[in-house]
Structure formats: structure tokens, C-alpha cells
Design goal:
The protein is an all-alpha fold. About 60% of the residues lie in helices and about 0% in strands.
Length: about 220
């Protein structure tokens, strides 16, 4: 096993032993995960929960119900998630694509081969690599590693990558170091997010009490 892969394994074990299983993504259905993956762009999860609660309370958390809703009204329901007009447009772009290209069937869409599913997701306006991969991993249960700002920051500070390491290269590092496993990929991503939130902050990191201290 390459040294990098060994260090990633140690990092994973440290975090798992400290935090325990995360149970991420906290969605009750694949559709809810899809919606949450777009709503969580540039905001924290507490705000996403408020927006999803609004949709549930109004019995709107389904593809037909959300598509039938005027975009301006959809934006009001998801207002707590921030950038609500932009996100309403992105939601409509994706849901319209699923309805028109896959007969409104998530199962049909998610049964595509991994490369094709990712290609189609990235072709939808407003869907970038992190959002596409979150949908693939957590909603479609396809083994692909999700990379975010926390991932880059934590690995950079532990000398596992360079400052200019891009999304694809970082994703390959994880996927070449671990066998394809939906549960482990999701667990590792969630642990990195929690570490970034609580310890490896952008400013004033809490290195002295971080579970990765000394690694």
C-alpha cells in the first residue's frame, strides 16, 4: 500500500474512533437528498433543514409538486437556505431534466452507469462536481468520493496534497486508496466535514485538541 494510502487510512481511523458513525446524509428519501444537495451549496446544513422543513410542511417534497410550483414561490419556500432565487432555478433545471429525459423516474436516472450519470448531472446548469457527486453517492448509492473545501483544507494541512491540487486529482487520491464502498466513502466524507466544522477551521483552527493532532 502506498504511503499516501496508509496515511489516509490512519486519518480515517482516527476520525472514526473520535466521532463514531455519522449517519450522513440525513435525508428520508433519495429525492430529499437530491434537493438537499442543491440547497446546501454555499450554506450550512441547519439552514438547509429549515428549507426542507418548509417544503415538507407544505407537502411539496416531491418531483411533481415542486415542478408544478411557480419558481418564484419555490424560492420563497427555500428562502432559509440562502441564494434562494438561484437555487430555485437550479432545482427546476435538474427536476425538469429528470422529468423530460427520464420520465420523472429517479430510479431510471440513478441506474445509469456511473460515468454517464455524472456526465448528465454535470450537464445541468448549476450542478458542479461536488453537488453531482453528492447526489451520486448519497441518493444514487454509487461509489464515488465527494470532495469539498474541508477535504482540501485538512489534507493540505497534513501534507497529503499541494495547495493547487484540483478536485479531480483529490478525488482520485481517495478512490485509488480505498476500494469502492458507498458506506465508507460517505462515512469518510462526513467525518471530514465534521472535523472541518469543529476543528480544522479556515481561521483559528483548534489544532491542539483536534483528533488528528500529531498525525
Amino acid at each position: 500500500m502506498p504511503a499516501q494510502a496508509e496515511r489516509l487510512e490512519i486519518l480515517y481511523q482516527r476520525l472514526y474512533e473520535h466521532f463514531g458513525p455519522q449517519g450522513w446524509w440525513p435525508g428520508e428519501s433519495a429525492f430529499e437528498v437530491v434537493v438537499g444537495a442543491i440547497l446546501t451549496q454555499n450554506t450550512n446544513w441547519k439552514n438547509v433543514e429549515k428549507a426542507i422543513f418548509n417544503l415538507k410542511e407544505a407537502d411539496l417534497l416531491s418531483l411533481p409538486a415542486m415542478l408544478a410550483l411557480p419558481q418564484a414561490l419555490l424560492a420563497e419556500y427555500i428562502r432559509p437556505a440562502g441564494y434562494y432565487n438561484i437555487k430555485a432555478g437550479r432545482l427546476r433545471n435538474l427536476l425538469t431534466f429528470i422529468e423530460e429525459e427520464h420520465d420523472a423516474g429517479l430510479d431510471t436516472f440513478f441506474s445509469l452507469p456511473q460515468d454517464e450519470l455524472r456526465r448528465q448531472l454535470l450537464a445541468v446548469k448549476g450542478i458542479g462536481p461536488e453537488t453531482a457527486d453528492s447526489i451520486m453517492l448519497y441518493a444514487a448509492a454509487q461509489p464515488i468520493f465527494v470532495v469539498d473545501t474541508y477535504t482540501h483544507r485538512i489534507l493540505l494541512r497534513h501534507d497529503l496534497i499541494d495547495e493547487d491540487t484540483d478536485y479531480h486529482t483529490l478525488q482520485e487520491l481517495f478512490m485509488n486508496s480505498f476500494p469502492p464502498d458507498v458506506d465508507q466513502y460517505g462515512e469518510f466524507h462526513a467525518l471530514l466535514v465534521r472535523t472541518g466544522n469543529q476543528f480544522c477551521k479556515k481561521t483559528n483552527p483548534r489544532c491542539d485538541i483536534c483528533p488528528l493532532n500529531g498525525l
